[in-house]
């Protein structure tokens, strides 16, 4: 069951998928339609999941579930991954590769393989002050407070 993202409690579980390329506005509208249809039917053991999504920067798909109502289970998480995989195929993008880093370079959102990001650190093309997207967060509160942070304040800090 879809609910507005802002209505979810801060403890709601969250999953973040980053695209290896920017989606067009037309693609974003279609993805939004697909997401709403998926979330309306997303369930765990026959019980609807109170869930929501956000699309950010034409690059990120964020799914969230209010676990106080019904916890996401292995099967329901698997179905969400299958849904994300269907988007990967439909739009010829990579949404599941966790070995990439997305960060801001001014107003531009950059997406690099981890090895290239490490090289940029070495070359001082990115610094501890570079804003990175910390996709390892677990809940809505962390998303609101710690998703877009300076590299020094995230797991990326190990590279400096």
Please trace the helix and strand order, writing H or E for each element. EHEEEEHEEHEHE
Query: How many helix segments?
Result: 4
Please give the share of residues in helix: 25-40%
Q: How is the main sheet built?
A: 3 strands, antiparallel
Strand segment tally: 9
Stretches where pLDDT falls below 50 for ≥5 residues? none
What is the average of the pLDDT values? 94
Form type: globular
Keywords:
single chain; 160 residues; alpha+beta; 3-stranded antiparallel beta sheet; two-stranded antiparallel sheet; ABC transporter ATPase
How would you explain this protein's 3D organization?
By secondary structure, the chain is of the alpha+beta class. It folds into two domains: 5-91; 100-159, no CATH class. 32% of the residues lie in helices and 25% in strands. The chain is built from four helices and nine strands, in the order E-H-E-E-E-E-H-E-E-H-E-H-E. The protein has helices spanning 25-41, 74-91, 114-122, 140-146, and strands spanning 13-18, 43-44, 47-48, 51-56, 60-65, 100-105, 108-113, 131-133, 148-150. A hairpin with a 2-residue loop joins strand 2 and strand 3 (47-48). The longest helix has 18 residues, at 74-91. It comes from Flavobacterium faecale. This is ABC transporter ATPase.
List the helices and strands and how they pair.
Blueprint: E1 13-18, H1 25-41, E2 43-44, E3 47-48, E4 51-56, E5 60-65, H2 74-91, E6 100-105, E7 108-113, H3 114-122, E8 131-133, H4 140-146, E9 148-150
Antiparallel strand pairs: 1-5, 2-3, 4-5, 6-7, 8-9
